[in-house]
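Lecture notes, unit on binding sites. The following record was shown on slide 14. It pairs a sequence with shikimate-3-phosphate.
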Amino acid sequence: MPHDQPAQPLRAHPSPGPLSGRLRVPGDKSISHRALMFGALAVGTTRIEGLLEGEDVLRTAAAMRLLGAEVERLGEGAWRVAGRGVGGLTEPEDVLDMGNSGTAARLICGLLAGHPLFAVMTGDASLRRRPMKRVTEPLAATGARFLSRAGGRLPLAVEGARHPMPLDYTLPVASAQVKSACLLAGLCAPGVTRVVEPEATRDHSENMLRHFGATVRVAAEGAGRVIELDGQPELRAAPVQVPGDPSSAAFFAVAALVVPGSRLVVENVGLNPLRTGLFETLREMGASLSVSNGRTEGGEPVGDLVLRHGELRAVDVPAARAPSMIDEYPVLAVAAAFARGTSRFRGLQELRVKESDRLAGTAALLAAAGVRAEIEGDDLLVHGTGGAVAGGGVAVAQMDHRLAMSALVLGLGAKAGMGVDDGAFIATSFPNFVALMNRAAGSEALGPA
Ligand code: S3P
């Protein structure tokens, strides 16, 4: 576990040449977690291809095993899950340790709420700081009981509902994790579980529920959606093909845009419209970014991203776009640092409760690189340099993979490179990030500090 290991300081040297070639990033993290969970709840054997084998997802695999599913790795990205059927999970013999993963922790709370069992959950120092009340409060209405540390933090204990009640819940924050936790609990309850989201968030749970045979109705309501799930379905095992993670492709997209002369293709990237806010924003900044070979695979749109370096201009990102790019703001801030003019990203309050306080962490990262940035309320302002980022500093990763990777991307394009105090957490979502970036750069631009 990275939090038990010594820090791994990393450094990005200015890339000696352009990024080029074609590459694939690892599987989508959100879809990978869900494939393991729905596979564990299905009757029969689910085959998964392209599973992300990052630490976060391996935590989910281990938790599904502890809850009674058979989970086996067959080869690179190829996994087999023999499920227990809806309501068929069994009491775990040990504590569920979700490591760094908020998605695993919150979704599994939903799963546990619907089963008559006792479980204890914990995580690393970052996850133990993150709010869990946003799931335990709505899930209590199923009849499940949660006990947690002050402020609803992990570790927590749950006694799942013997006779779970369906939920009717309106989300107070735009969160796919909370929505998904409610839907997972609703699988075990009779009747209809209803979740209203004020803004549409990633719908991988809804898509995969249908793929496994559940009945899910989705209706638009203003900017948001009403989702209804018919309870106690028989989920049937179904093959899952996991596309490349757009949130991981994001680092390569921005790296190609800021390293002069680059021309890069990232193949097989998931392009679910509720995930592609960054790509839309980069285009608004004048980026040369196009999609080729667009197709649908496993119910999700995918395509190849074609990127070319070029000048970027500042952008004003509306708050309404945040749910479709919530994990991409640190690396967007890097793009904005290279752009001409001052960018404003609006409505970033949710960034404060990610793997770190990402709003403060992103501003600090830019400051360490000699780029002026300010937080105004819930907005981030980045004063772009028109391509001349000084760099040279050392960013503090704060147990946050996305801050670490963003700092390294900045360093590739900066005059003096950039360091990060601890890159160990990159393995939570993108274990081969350094190797893949060096391959694209054709050098050892990234390496130990
Ligand atoms: C995720 C939802 C988002 C995102 C996270 C993955 C998911 O979190 O930040 O990385 O898989 O549902 P929130 O639901 O808290 O916004």
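Take-home: Residues 243 and 382 are 32 Å apart (CA to CA).
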